[in-house]
Design brief:
This protein has 403 residues and is an alpha/beta fold. The protein is built from 13 helices and nine strands. The two termini are 51 Å apart.
Length: 403
């Protein structure tokens, strides 16, 4: 059926609203997972405050990872040991700047103002290796990359596990584990596999964690989660930087100095999870099928069924006679009706004639023996019959009528 103009407008508005909400609201919420500015259960604001309270310097990196890959200028000072660097840094910002603002950008806005190497860079996000890919040359210079939230295979491990460490019991809620191998150094694990492990690359190394929620705000009451992650990132002894660029926070002065324009819509959509795009496509397909197979407007009521009083009476009478097992009455009534019908067919009128006269006339007309008709319609043979015998008799009477 064709849709009127108003129906098309309503359908278009609904589809546009669905696309906007799915493509913007859902990815935006996922983008903040693991951010040290986050106050939600999946944020890391409480861990960042914990590091400050411990006197450990943690700074926020709000530039692309590529800005760190160029070899450092030989005139730059070497990295200060973490114990001495802690005394030279003040406390970080307690409130998040708007993404794209210059507040608390971590590194300065000068093009050459990069952190001294070696350093430790921490990236926290679901599927973090898609956002922060390890660079071998950068690692070989002695730098450390900590990736919290790498994709690992699903195993038979229970969803919630409490794993002992020197820093205290660490609560892990994931069934994902990495299989041990000779090149991996286990940092946290159980019989099902590794939850945290490290891999040496030249003078540096990569530390990976299977869950993005290792030290999230939801685990601030657990005894060992915060201290275990703190030990992972501070153990190398280098200044610690947390990547906030992957969560949408930008240094605008740096962006302007390098000529980078704000991220385009297509670049933003390219980072949208494939599963979300599939769900959107299925929803749009379902709406299209629904629109093509159903008319808009009030549904048409079904017409009321027509009642046949004669048929209803006959069915009710038949039910009563069957329950009363009154087959004699049924046979007697049908015999009289068939005799009258047969008389009319033979031209004998409507006045009931005796069965002998009727059978002789029927024999002359059909050439069949009169005894056959008398056996079928003889009242003396009317007796109580079972259901099968009654149906057989009725079928023979119907055959007689058709002849």
């Amino acid at each position: 059926m064709k849709l009127n103009r108003r129906a098309w407008i309503v359908l278009s508005v609904a589809l546009a609203t669905l696309v906007v909400l799915s493509a913007i609201a859902a990815p935006s919420t996922r983008l903040r997972t693991g951010s040290t500015y986050g106050r939600a259960p999946d944020g890391y604001g409480a861990w960042f405050a914990y590091m400050q309270a411990q006197g450990t310097p943690v700074q926020r990196w709000q530039r692309p990872f590529e800005d760190l890959l160029e070899p450092p200028d030989s005139s730059l000072p070497e990295a200060m040991p973490i114990s001495a660097h802690a005394q030279s840094l003040g406390s970080g910002a307690d409130h998040p700047p708007a993404p794209g603002s210059g507040e608390n950008s971590g590194a300065g806005s000068s093009l050459d103002d990069r952190p001294a190497e070696p350093m430790t860079l921490v990236g926290i996000a679901p599927l973090v290796e898609q956002l922060l890919r390890p660079d071998e040359d950068w690692l070989r210079r002695g730098n450390v990359l900590v990736l919290v939230g790498v994709r690992s295979p699903v195993t038979g491990a229970p969803f919630r596990s409490v794993l002992p460490t020197p820093q205290g019991d660490v609560t892990v809620e994931t069934t994902r584990r990495q299989a041990p191998s000779p090149g991996l150094n286990a940092r946290l694990g159980d019989p099902f596999g590794l939850v945290a492990w490290e891999q040496t690359v030249g003078a540096g190394k990569v530390i990976r964690v299977a869950t993005p929620h290792l030290a999230a705000n939801a685990y601030q009451d657990e005894p060992g989660n915060f201290s275990f992650l703190a030990n992972l990132v501070t153990e190398p002894g280098y200044p610690v930087w947390v990547d906030e660029y992957i969560h949408g926070y930008r240094d605008p002065q740096r962006e302007a100095a390098t000529g980078r324009s704000p991220q385009s819509v297509w670049a933003y959509l390219s980072r949208t999870p494939i599963a979300l795009l599939v769900v959107q496509s299925l929803v749009l397909l379902a709406l299209a099928v629904w629109a093509g197979n159903r008319r808009m407007g009030k549904p048409l009521p079904d017409p009321p069924p027509k009642l046949d009083n004669s048929e209803a009476y006959i069915q009710a009478l038949g039910t009563v006679l069957r329950k009363a097992e009154s087959t004699e009455f049924v046979i007697d009534t049908l015999c009289k009706a068939e005799q009258i019908n047969l008389q009319r067919s033979l031209g004998l009128g409507n006045i009931p004639a005796d069965l002998l006269t009727l059978s002789q006339a029927w024999e002359q007309h059909t050439g069949r023996p009169a005894a056959e008709l008398r056996r079928l319609l003889n009242p003396e043979r009317k007796k109580r019959l079972g259901d099968r015998a009654l149906l057989d008799w009725v079928s023979r009477v119907q055959a007689l009528r058709r002849e």
